[in-house]
Amino acid sequence: MKHALISCFLLLLAACDGPSNPKVAATEQLSELPKDDHSYSNLNQIRTKHLHLDLEVDFQSKKIYGIASHTMINNGADTAIFDIKGLQIQKVTLGKKGHEKETSFAIGPMDKDSIIGQALLVDVEPSTTKVNIYYQTTENSDALDWLDSSLTSSKNKPFLYTQGQAILTRTWIPCQDSPSNRITYSASVKVPADLMALMSARNPKKRALDGHYHFELTKPIPSYLIALAVGDIRYHAFSANSGVYAEKELIDACAREFVAIPKMIDAAEQLYGPYRWDQYDVLVLPYSFPFGGMENPMLTFANPTLITGDRSLVSVIAHELAHSWSGNLVTNHNWNDFWLNEGTTVYFENRIMEALYGKEIADILALVEFDELQDEIASMNQSAHPEDSKLHMELAGRDPDDAMTDVAYVKGAFFLKSLEAKVGRQKFDAFLKGYFAHFAFQTIDAIRFIDYLNADLLKKDKLSFNYNEWIYEKGLPKNCLQLESVRLNSMIQSAHLFAQGKLSFKPKYQYKTKRIHGRKRRVKTNIHTQYQDRIIQEWQLFIRNLPSDLSINKMRELDRDLHFSATGNSEVLTEWFILSAKTGYAVQIRPVLERFLVKVGRRKYVLPIYDALMQNPKTKHLASELFEKAKNNYHAVTRKSVAEIVK
Ligand code: BES
Ligand code: ZN
Question: Is 295 a pocket residue for ligand 1 (Cβ < 6 Å)?
Answer without folding.
Answer: yes
